[in-house]
Amino acid sequence: QENLKTEAPTQAGCAVLTCYDAAGLVRSQGIDMELQGALTENWQVGAGYTYARTHYLKDFDPAKENQRFDTDTPEHLFKFSTVYRLQGALEKMRVGGNVYWQSRLYNDIALTDASYRLEQGSYAVADLMAGYQVNKHLDLQLNANNIFDRTYYTAIGASSVWGSTDVYGNPRSYALTAKYSF
């Protein structure tokens, strides 16, 4: 990305909190792949992986050059999901689950009196589901999300104006849904 918004080297005469200039240059590189399919007639599986690296090529602050940009975005993401439809007397039932993993996030915060790093280490979240096809019109499904009740941040940061901008991920939760088709 050319003309990236970068903090101006001097804030003299700035009427707002921070002044920016369009002078930065950032390069993003990565890969995103996903594979889905049926291992058997009753068993579906999906997996995906994303790698994204963004780094400064140019900035007013030469120390940022070749450093990571947007450190509150994970470099690595992995997801896996599966659903299995039972057979025989239980053929109306299905069970499944998924796992989501991501690499660490961090933000280096420089305030007037101190500098510090906010960090969320890599984490994984697992979900389970069970469904039952009552008849050709009605389908019931129970989802259990974040089954290990993992506490994690989906976003981290801080602002001298707004304070902490950390966002917690969803705690363990359950959802029962009914789908009726006409």
UniProtKB/TrEMBL annotation:
PROSITE patterns: TONB_DEPENDENT_REC_2, TONB_DEPENDENT_REC_3. One of its GO terms (molecular function) is siderophore uptake transmembrane transporter activity. It is found in: Cell outer membrane. Belongs to the TonB-dependent receptor family. It is a multi-pass membrane protein. It comes from the Bacteria. This is TonB-dependent siderophore receptor. GO terms for cellular component: cell outer membrane. It holds the Pfam family TonB_dep_Rec_b-barrel. It comes from Pseudomonas syringae pv. primulae. SUPFAM superfamilies: Porins (SSF56935). Gene3D superfamilies: TonB-dependent receptor, beta-barrel domain.
